[in-house]
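Run log // design_07
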């Protein structure tokens, strides 16, 4: 059974940092592209950052230079380091694992990030 388990969300003040983690179970982690998405209240889910199985990365324009995605294949874990957080970064953040474009991705349950003073 495939599971993606996110952690690291919480309440942080503007300008603060958080690191999200997502650990995968039941997949050959190193073979999967991994991504972080977010969904704010009343908005559609959107891509935040993605890292391929070969560790190439891409980011939403709104987070470039502020967020960093990385992976540790030995720990089956993908990370999202978020710095200089703003209230508009408040959302539920979801982990995503995708083997290739022909197969459906797996999703985690989401972790809430709230940026507020």
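design_07 sequence
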């Amino acid at each position: 059974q495939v599971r993606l388990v996110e952690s690291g969300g919480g309440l942080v003040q503007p300008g603060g940092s958080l690191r999200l983690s997502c650990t995968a179970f039941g997949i050959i982690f190193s073979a999967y592209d991994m991504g972080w998405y977010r969904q704010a209240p009343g908005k559609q889910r959107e891509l935040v950052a993605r890292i391929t199985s070969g560790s190439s990365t891409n980011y939403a324009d709104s987070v470039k230079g502020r967020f960093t995605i990385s992976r540790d294949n030995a720990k089956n874990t993908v990370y999202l380091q978020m710095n200089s957080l703003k209230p508009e970064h408040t959302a539920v953040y979801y982990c995503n694992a995708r083997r290739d474009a022909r197969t459906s991705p797996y999703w985690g349950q989401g972790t809430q990030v709230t940026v507020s003073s």
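The CA atoms of residues 10 and 27 lie 27 Å apart.
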